[in-house]
Amino acid sequence: MTDPDLTLLQESSENVSLISSQFQAESEKNQLQMIPNLASAGEAGLDVLMDFLRSNQSTPISLVKGKVYQTLYQVNTSQTQDFLSTYFPTGVVPLDSDRQIDYRLLQKLLVEGDFQTADSLTRQKLCELAGEAAIGRKWLYFTEVEKFPLTDLHTINSLWWVHSEGKFGFSVQRKIWLSVGEDFPKLWPKINWKNGNNWTQYPNEFIWNLNAPAGHLPLLNQLRGVRVAASLYNHPVWEEKGW
After folding, report:
1. Name one GO cellular component term (predicted).
2. What are the DSSP E strand ranges found in 62-154?
3. Using an 8 Å Cβ cutoff, are 170 and 153 in contact?
4. What CATH number matches the domain at 104-240, 3.30.365.10, 2.60.120.200, 1.10.10.1770, 1.10.8.280?
5. What is the mean pLDDT of residues 22-39?
6. Mean pLDDT calculated for residue range 116-131
7. Across-strand partners of 198?
8. What's the CA gap between 84 and 53, in Å, rounded?
9. Rounded CA separation 225/107 (Å)
10. CA–CA distance, 19 with 1 (Å, rounded to integer)
11. I need a labelling partner for 43 at 20 to 30 A (CA). Which of 10, 115, 143, 203 fits?
12. Bridge partner residues of 194 (DSSP)
């Protein structure tokens, strides 16, 4: 959004609908760039963002919806709190589960940008999906991954993808894996899980913010071999859910 547009927005609340229409008409790339400017434009800018979310309440999840929600959440005024609790009490990603697993805390951590805690919780949720034995041992067999419900994998991946501006998620890792011919030794350095002959050391050598390379998060225990990762990347969720 140009400076004159911001000035116009700040000068009169009557211009909110005009700026709102301009924002809605922009490309996804431009919208993502405009969101911080709108958030810094005061109450009128926040009105534009809330109007966007309200008018897109029933549309499919998108990076822009995720970024707008995240921005309003982090602004944390009484106005934005009331709006989000009324229209989006559990966020913009449906927290669906075939195993009655609660994903609300994972959603909250990702919205707040606490990627390290969200990563640990993601592994816990995957073990919950696998059952009591996996919960006890705290890691997965590839045969357990094959049986994961599509619904739950879709929910977990959507939360990561939407709240990282499309940078993180199992689907992102899978696309990179496919781009290198399903060659895991080529994948690991691409997503910075390995540097030369050295595995990236957990947790201090991992990057827990959006400066990380695409696909860097969430983590899998790659040291147990590639069978868990292969089962995850070959899961039918990616084809059936349109990833």
Report:
1. outer membrane-bounded periplasmic space
2. none
3. yes
4. 1.10.10.1770
5. 93
6. 97
7. 195
8. 9
9. 29
10. 9
11. 115
12. 199
